[in-house]
Write a structure and sequence with these properties.
This is 7-cyano-7-deazaguanine synthase. This protein is of the alpha/beta class. The protein is built from 18 helices and 11 strands. The protein folds into 2 domains: 222 residues, no CATH class; 101 residues, no CATH class. 45% of the residues lie in helices and 16% in strands.
C-alpha cells in the first residue's frame, strides 16, 4: 500500500523540522532532505497538531495523486477536516488525483490563541496590493514566503534580500508588521519528478496547478497561531468565469483552516483590471507615489521589458495612471514592442496569461486611445487570436519527450540522470506571478 509517514515533527526556537518516510513507489517524489521551515517568531509553544500542518500541506497533494495514505502522530482537528474539504475540491478539478486517507494517532482540538490579528500573503504585486487596499483598516501583518518563486538556494539570496527590504519598507510606511517565512518545501519534494509525471495533466507546474494554495497557507500555520491571527488572506490570481486548473482558488483556499485561523481567497470577484482600478482609486485618494513590483525577472524593481511588466504597465494606463510613476518605464513606443514579442512567441504564455490579455482587451474597447501608437495597439489587440499566441508558446517536443522518459524511469535510473534532467528542465521554467 502506498504511504507517506511524517516522523519527528520538532520545533526548536523559530525552526520547524520533520522527517518523512515513504513506501518505495513514492520515493521518487521526495529528495533526501528533511522538511524545514524557519519563522521569525518562536514556535516552541505551538501545539504539535498545529506544527504538523506545514509538512502535511505539502505532502498530502502528492499522496492524493498516488492514492496513498498519510500517517502522522498528531494533527489539529480543524485542519484535518480542512484537508478533507480541500481534497474534495482538488479531486473535482483534477481527474488524475486518486485521494487517500490521513491517519493520526491523536486528533486534537487545539485551543486557539486569541489575538484578533489578520495576515496577508504579500509581494507588492497587483493582486496582493489590491488585497492590502481592501483590508487596510485591519492593518494586516504582511507575510512573505521564501521557498517557491524565490528558492532557498544561495543563488536567490539577493532576490530574497530585495523582497524583504521592499516589503519591510512598505510595512514601515503603512504602520504594519511583517512576517518572513523560509522553507525548503519544494526542494524537499522532488519537484522536477512531479513535473515529469503530472505536467501532462496541468497547465503550468505541479505547485502552481495543484499544491500552492494549501501549501503556502499551511506553511503559515505555526506563525499564525503564535501571532494570534484569526484571518489569513491570499490574493486571488484569477476571477469568476475563469475555469482553470489552478492550485489557489476559493474552493481550495476558503476551506483551509486550523485552530483559531480561517483562510480567505481574496478578490476573486474582481478581474485583474478591476484590481488595478481599485489600486488606482487608492493612489488618487491616498498614496500618489505607490510603487508596484510584478517583474518576472527582477525583485529589486521592474525590468520594464518582460511580459508581466508590459502587461501591468498597459493595465495602469487603462486605469488612468502613468506607469512610470509606479515603477514601470513605459512610453508609446513600447506598444509596438509588446505586439512584436507576442507575435513572435518570445514569451511562454499559458491560459492564465491569455485570460489576462483578454481582460485588457475588454477594457481597451471601452477606452479612447491617447495617441496613434496606443490606437494602433488597441486595434491589433481587438483582432488578434490570443489562442494562437498561447499555442505558439508551447515547450518543444524534445522537452515533452524528456518528461515522459523521466516519468517511466526507475528511481535509481532517474537519480543517476537527474543532473541532465535538471539542466534540460531549466529551459521549461515558467516563472509564475508573484502574490
Amino acid at each position: 500500500m502506498s504511504s507517506i509517514v511524517i516522523d519527528h515533527v520538532q520545533a526548536d526556537g523559530t525552526t520547524l523540522e520533520a522527517d518523512v518516510r515513504t513506501s518505495g513507489d513514492l520515493e521518487r517524489f521526495f529528495t533526501t532532505e528533511s522538511f524545514r521551515t524557519e519563522y521569525d517568531v518562536p514556535i516552541a509553544d505551538v501545539p504539535e497538531g498545529v506544527l504538523a500542518i506545514p509538512v502535511l500541506a505539502q505532502v498530502c497533494p502528492v499522496a492524493w495523486a498516488n492514492g496513498a495514505d498519510v500517517y502522522v502522530d498528531e494533527v489539529d482537528a480543524t485542519f484535518a477536516a480542512a484537508l478533507r474539504d480541500v481534497e474534495a475540491s482538488l479531486r473535482e478539478m483534477h481527474d488524475f488525483l486518486e485521494g487517500g486517507t490521513l491517519y493520526a494517532k491523536e486528533t486534537i482540538a487545539a485551543d486557539p490563541r486569541a489575538g484578533g490579528e489578520s495576515g496577508l500573503l504579500f509581494t507588492g504585486g497587483v493582486d496582493s496590493t489590491c488585497s492590502y487596499v481592501r483590508h487596510r483598516e485591519e492593518a494586516p501583518t504582511l507575510v512573505s514566503i521564501r521557498g517557491w518563486t524565490i528558492t532557498p538556494d544561495a543563488a536567490d539570496d539577493e532576490k530574497w534580500d530585495a523582497l524583504r527590504e521592499r516589503v519591510t519598507g512598505f510595512a514601515d510606511e503603512h504602520g504594519l508588521e511583517t512576517a518572513f517565512v523560509e522553507s525548503n518545501m519544494l526542494s524537499f519534494l522532488d519537484h522536477p519528478m512531479l513535473l515529469a509525471h503530472y505536467k501532462r495533466y496541468v497547465d503550468g507546474a505541479w505547485y502552481s496547478s495543484v499544491g500552492h494554495g494549501l501549501g503556502l497557507l499551511g506553511l503559515c500555520a505555526p506563525m499564525a497561531y503564535a501571532r494570534g491571527m484569526e484571518d489569513l488572506y491570499v490574493a486571488a490570481t484569477h476571477w469568476e468565469g475563469i475555469d482553470l486548473e489552478w492550485g489557489s482558488r476559493p474552493d481550495i483556499d476558503d476551506h483551509v483552516r486550523w485552530a483559531g485561523t480561517q483562510c480567505h481567497h481574496d478578490g476573486y470577484e474582481l478581474t485583474r483590471q478591476e484590481r488595478v482600478d481599485a489600486i488606482a482609486d487608492y493612489v488618487r485618494e491616498e498614496e500618489p507615489n505607490l510603487q508596484l513590483q510584478t517583474c518576472n525577472d527582477r525583485m529589486d524593481g521592474n525590468c520594464g521589458e518582460c511580459e508581466k511588466c508590459y502587461r501591468t504597465a498597459v493595465g495602469l494606463r487603462l486605469s488612468g495612471l502613468e506607469p512610470t510613476d509606479h515603477g514601470y518605464p513605459f512610453d508609446d513606443e513600447d506598444y509596438r514592442e509588446i505586439r512584436t514579442a507576442l507575435e513572435e512567441g518570445r514569451w511562454v504564455l499559458g491560459q492564465d496569461e491569455k485570460y489576462m490579455w483578454e481582460d485588457i482587451r475588454e477594457r481597451t474597447r471601452e477606452t479612447d486611445p491617447s495617441s496613434p501608437a496606443e490606437a494602433a495597439f488597441f486595434a491589433w489587440l481587438d483582432e488578434v487570436d490570443l489562442d494562437e499566441l498561447v499555442s505558439e508558446s508551447e515547450p518543444p517536443l524534445s522537452h515533452r519527450l524528456l518528461r515522459a522518459g523521466a516519468r517511466n524511469a526507475p528511481a535509481s535510473v532517474y537519480n543517476a540522470v537527474y543532473p541532465a534532467w535538471a539542466t534540460a528542465k531549466s529551459g521549461l521554467r515558467r516563472v509564475r506571478r508573484g502574490r
